[in-house]
Amino acid sequence: MEGRRSLEGQIAKRTNRAGKGLKIGGQCRERGRNGTFEWSIQSFLLKPLCSDPLSIHPRLFSCISTSVPLSVPDIILSFCLSLSLLLPPNLRGQSTSDYVVPNPIASVSVCASASACFFFFFFISILSSFQSDHLHLQAIMLSSRGCVGRIHVLGRAAARMAYSSSASPASSGLNFEFTPEQIALRDSVRKFVTDEIIPVAAQYDKTMEYPWPIIKKAHSLGFLNGVVPEKYGGVGLDAVSDVLICEEVAYGCSGMATAVTGNDLAETPVLIGGSEEIKKKFLGRMIEEPLVASYAVTEPCAGSDVAGIKMKCEKKGDEYILNGSKMWITNAGHANWFFVLARSDPDPKTPAGKAFTAFAVEGDSPGLTRGRKEINMGQRCSDTRGITFEDVRVPASHVVGAPGEGFKIAMKTFDKTRPIVAAVASGLAERCLDVATQYSLERKAFGTEIANFQGVAFMLAEMAMQIEMARYMTYKSAYWVDTGRPGSFFASIAKLFASDTANMAATNCVQVFGGAGFNTEYPAEKLMRDAKIFQIYEGTSQIQRVVIARQMLARLKEQGFY
């Protein structure tokens, strides 16, 4: 049946004249004796219009409302729509085969009126084509963040819509809203970042000085040591609130965020396995004054392979003697104390879960030597050093957990801290999107802002999309921590995806800047240098894939699939 052919095919192939009749999509025949013409317009076109003219072509009206340019078939359809809108009211609901135009003069009048309507729709389509580029770009960016020199695009605008709404949760059970307390916390951190971090971040990157003034200010405002419970003097933030702080600080400078989050990494294993004595001694002091601590696990020959640690500990009386070295330790040059992992069982055949013991070691312990500050590619204000232990004596009371359980504690720590790394990576990615968007609206080429070019707009859209997904995974992994569920699977996914997103966003940011992105006078190159470390520390992106795969297979095995 011809009426079931494609809409565009019907109009393109069958709009013509036959004798004295007008043929639109179907047959038209002269009825002869009374000189009238019968229009047999296909039911797929006019019949819906008899009852609801707006049902003919939803795309036509969506194009007009959203300024999407109409295609040629759309314009032709608009003529048919205009024509159909002139049908007599008494014919609505009747079969189109019964619609008879009384005489040729009437048909000419109908066509003239329809043409006027057609040109209205045609004008709208032309106007929308001029507006489309700007409106498409506006769909992915541009709402003020209230900060001088920066704009607030989809990465954060969408977050406000999704998480800051006062609407009640949907009946589906999902709730994508922050609490009022979390919103207030985020806004206060955001102001701190705008006022204190962004103005000095580039200078700290050049001088590579440790940002003590920022650390002290953050401590005075309660932005450090969020994981420390109230019973030890802290505020006991939930994991979601903690990642909000880290994300905002990283927006200003990820190097400073790494310095800030280094405390969380050192404090978390103490919270997991430490005795009450250790918790009060080492965590309480972090609240009383602005101090930093370090997580010392990585060694020169043991990075991803934590089980390959060579540092030894030997028990003598009520003390342990530590010998060995650590490498790439964040905050090592300024740490008040260290969380340290050492091999307590010399037998190489002993499983990792029983071969290592963890300690809380005072930073001023005799025999502990801090190496020189490493000059890294990015995050240069963060302090990274090696540490040497030569007969360092540690009281047995400073063992974190039971002897031999250090490896398990260290791995459980990552389940809680990888969401923090994901948050820092997401914050940097959001900054990349903002500065790239701002530059694309200022830089002109070929007579217009480069944001109007599809090649640039697509990069911005890709960044916005990936950032939103990274943030959702970050919050979900933090939520998993708050609910006490096993979190390795989601923590690794969040860390992996956010790390890769940060590097993609940084690369696109430099590309949008072009030659300026390769110059130190612009922020893009710093963002690119800062981003790379996310794919390396706290488990490389390859290790995250190993963890994810193992978790998947273990789950399938539990369910009896193999």
Automatic annotation (TrEMBL):
One annotated GO molecular function is: flavin adenine dinucleotide binding
A Gene Ontology cellular-component term: mitochondrial matrix
Q: Which reaction does it catalyse?
A: a medium-chain 2,3-saturated fatty acyl-CoA + oxidized [electron-transfer flavoprotein] + H(+) = a medium-chain (2E)-enoyl-CoA + reduced [electron-transfer flavoprotein]
Transmembrane regions: 105-127
Which cofactor does this sequence's record say it needs?
Answer: FAD
Which residue range or ranges hold the Acyl-CoA oxidase/dehydrogenase middle domain? 295-392
Q: Which pathway does it operate in?
A: Lipid metabolism; mitochondrial fatty acid beta-oxidation
The residue ranges of the Acyl-CoA dehydrogenase/oxidase C-terminal domain are: 404-553
Name a single GO biological process: medium-chain fatty acid catabolic process
Q: How does it assemble?
A: Homotetramer.
The job of this chain, per UniProt, is described as: This enzyme is specific for acyl chain lengths of 4 to 16.
Query: What is this protein's record name?
Result: Medium-chain specific acyl-CoA dehydrogenase, mitochondrial
Tell me the organism's taxonomic lineage. Eukaryota, Metazoa, Ecdysozoa, Nematoda, Chromadorea
